[in-house]
Amino acid sequence: MLQTNKTAFREGMRDSIPIALGYLAVSFSLGIIAVNAGLTAGQGFWTSFFCMASAGEYIGFSLIAAQATYTEVALMTFIANARYLLMSAAWSQRISAKTPVIHRFVMALDLTDELFAIAIARKGSLNPWYSYGAAILPAIFWASGTAFGCIAGDILPKNIVSALSVALYGMFIAIIIPPAKENKVLFWLVSISFAMSLAANYLPYVSDLSGGTRIIILTVIISSVAALLFPHKTTEEEEV
Q1: Which of 193, 179, 186, 195 lies closest to 221, judged by CA?
Q2: How far apart are CA 220 and CA 157, in angstroms?
């Protein structure tokens, strides 16, 4: 059993190398956002190490920069990372019933989109040691990239830092555009989100709210309306 765990750990590390390299590049831009929010390289490193979520961290850093309350940061981060609840539910179906609870908790610490994808693609029950091996390099590279971005933000001229901070917006645009081009509903939802976010800065009463509160309200309203009007169809429904 020990040898099996050792092999699974090595396979996890091997499969995660491309993911780790990608994380290093993306988290560098996240570090620029973090330093603009007033975080040090050490704070950026540990934040990313314990919270491997680009959208969640971006929102968290943005709310910190906007001087949002702890409640606003916690609530918005929860909303941004809510998809992991669904991923973990699917992931749990691949874990052996004999797996101790402590392993399940530790495995959940580094559940990301990419790590979920390589784990769920494996055949048979998921060995916890595979997840540990797959998580270690991405976690280190993600945290290190954020720290490097913070250091660069402190050293580079302000105009260059401002330019680099746009890189993360580019990443989100790159994520949004491909599915939006294929799905008209998603295209209009994204467009409406942009329009409502802009309008919220000028509407009476709404503009008086903090930036963090406006983001929370818009996210809940738009996602709820979209879920009610355009529910995602299952494979069986699409074939009918």
Answers
A1: 193
A2: 38
Length of the chain: 240
**Alpha carbons 45 and 139: distance in angstroms, whole number:** 10
Alpha-carbon span 76 to 124, nearest angstrom: 36
User: Mind listing the pLDDT tens digit for each residue in 63-80?
Assistant: 888 888 888 888 888 877
Q: Residues near 118 by Cβ (< 8 Å), separated by ≥ 6?
A: 15, 16, 19, 134
Q: Model pTM?
A: 0.66
In whole angstroms, give the CA distance from residue 16 to residue 68.
35
CA distances for 109 relative to 50, 69, 158, 205, 234, angstroms? 8, 25, 35, 39, 29
Phi, psi values for residue 220, rounded to 5°: -65, -45
Contact between 37 and 64 (Cβ < 8 Å): yes
pLDDT band of residue 166 (cuts 50, 70, 90) is low
For residues 14 and 130, the answer to whether their CB atoms sit within 8 Å is no
